Amino acid sequence: xxxxxxxxxxxxxxxxxxxxxxxxxxxxxxxxxxxxxxxxxxxxxxxxxxxxxxxxxxxxxxxxxxxxxxxxxxxxxxxxxxxxxxxxxx
Length: 90
What we know:
The chain is mainly β. 0% of the residues lie in helices and 74% in strands. The chain is built from no helices and six strands. The protein is elongated and about 80 Å long.
């Protein structure tokens, strides 16, 4: 049996600071430039897709797929798991 779900996620990116430095040397002198950029916390959102294949005889799912998409529809992550073997206990 295949079970599917779709949903939406929201999060807030942490504020951060980026620092870029560069140097240029010529005979007798050196110039150095430092640039910093600070970003504010900002909300982000996207959607999710999940699918699970459940087998009653095994009494659990045997395969799962999880996908995460940005608000623009670009997939940012995909996770797949599959059961490789199992044993029936008495």
